[in-house]
Give the backbone structure.
Amino acid sequence: MNTGQHLIEFRGVTKVYGERHASMQALRGIDLHIVEGEFVAIMGPSGSGKSTCMNILGCLDTPTSGTYLFRDVDVGQLTRNQRALLRRYYQGFVFQGYNLLNRTSAIENVELPLIYRGAPAHERHEQALRALNTVGLKGWESHTPGELSGGQQQRVAIARAIVTEPAVLLADEPTGNLDTARSREIMELLNSLNIKEGITIIMITHEPDMAAYAKRIIHFRDGLVETDEQNGRTK
Amino acid sequence: MLWKTILIALREIRRNVLRSFLTVLGIVIGVAAVITMVTIGGGATVQVRQQIASMGNNLLMMSPGKRLGPGQSTGSIPFKENDADAIAKEISSIAAVAPVSSQSIMAIFGNQNWTTQVTGTDNHFLKATNRSVKAGRQFSDSELRSGAAVCIIGETVRKKLFGGQGTLGEKIRLQKLSCDVIGLLEEKGQSTMGMDQDDLVVIPLSTFHRRISGNQDVGLIQISVQQGSSTEKAQSDIRRLMRERRHLSASDDDNFNVMDMKEITKMLTGTTQLLTALLSAVAAVSLLVGGIGIMNIMLVSVTERTREIGVRLAIGALENDVLTQFLVEAVVLSSLGGLVGIALATAASFVVARLMQVPYIFNPGINLLSFIFSAAIGVIFGFFPARRAARLDPIDALRHE
Ligand SMILES: Nc1ncnc2c1ncn2[C@@H]1O[C@H](COP(=O)(O)OP(=O)(O)OP(=O)(O)O)[C@@H](O)[C@H]1O
Ligand SMILES: [Mg+2]
């Protein structure tokens, strides 16, 4: 991995929801610079714009103004399809609300990004099994989201995001529904993905204990970056 | 990649059994209804044409009374036998004229009996009504003159009285008249008006007058016009002749009525065609209702599907991947519905055609049309909402509620 290279750069990114008097400025000008191989935790009070920022990072949403560079490519200049390909080949996303496909087994959910990557069936199946195993869901492959607990669904969502071994993993509160022991397992997993695979990780969390795993912690407040510092006591 | 997309589409169909079933059901019912109605209607029209053709379109029928329907018999002076002779002599385009008198009488053979139409006429009757004798013979001149006790019977009467037994040479009883069966008429089949044309016993007119009616009246004159001659011309010639013979002055209305089979043909086929059109309209409405049903199902599931599209886009599906998937789903479901509908319609048309005794005629046009229509409905209502969703930003699709 080309650790240390530019991965993500935000220049004055803003996001306004709604129109005129009903409008809501969720991001007020974010400057951010993240290099390959970082492990970043984003913290901040509810409504401070963390998810909004993450959605823009994941190319799911477009900023109202400002520039987003991904590996020095201006995302704002890309077509819809180019952004889809960027998601397909470089990014893994864990949603705050999981967003699994209903009535679809865990393994099929995890296989989905591999299908769009065009992986052959047996390879797809193997990789998906391995990813589910990694998040501790061995034996739950054929269960549908309706048959899984919130925490289990969250882990399926994580498995789906990491199965492609993306360049960057964007996780919106990946441990929000897990107990402390499970949360620590997931953090250990992210940590090892970061160290062994060199996957850049950007993660939102409310819990200082989980943020402690990151090498860098960014605090959001009212749509602005409040503090951005290296983690002194990295675990 | 296309193959993968097709696989995804098929998987989605299988996963959403109820939704898929309801979608297909709407199309099946619509398609089956339209095809069945149109096929049966088409069969009925063909049948009416065939029946009328079997009666012969060169036939005229003259009855006493005004034109205004059967109830109106004011001043309906019956014909006489010489009216038929006069028509045969005076009008050149005539092929055959037969005086006909008939009465409903119970025919008895052994312990079997059957009430039938006993018709007194002469040998011209056969030609004048497009009939022939399939076994035995016609009346001889002396039988006709002397009023002999002989008869030629129709197929229905033969079946009812004799069943599988031999018929020719047996004696049947008509009231007090006991007569020899000398011939058997060729079947004509069921008539459109619900009358069985094979339910009759033909005897010489003189026999009918003497032994049954007791008068010299002729109730009806059957006329066949030579092939190639105009029936309209013959009709007006007959009218002129009969007005003269019945001494009608210029101000008098006709007290008889010459009917043309062509008019009846037009009227009857017109009726069945109108009926077919009406039934088809009803069926088209049911296809439309089926379409609306599909639309409803699609719209109800649009929220869920929009979120599904959001998920797919978020994990790297291109707009085209999603569109192809939804197109394949829509086409597969609609085609399935269309094919099942066609199969169902074929079975239903076949059975209904049997029950209604109309011919079953496969109509490729309507099958193709309703298939295309059903596919179009599926595609329009399955594909276009998907296209709208696939054009959203993934996050908007995911937030859709
Ligand atoms: N689709 C939207 N339309 C309008 N306003 C929105 C929308 N999404 C978010 N917001 C608003 O933008 C602000 C930031 O929302 P965001 O979801 O980014 O917060 P967050 O930091 O992720 O909060 P939490 O910790 O609760 O997840 C909030 O005030 C929210 O009400
Ligand atoms: Mg959030």
Remarks:
- Residues 6-230 of chain A form a domain with the Rossmann fold fold (CATH 3.40.50.300).
- Chain A is about 35% helix and 25% strand.
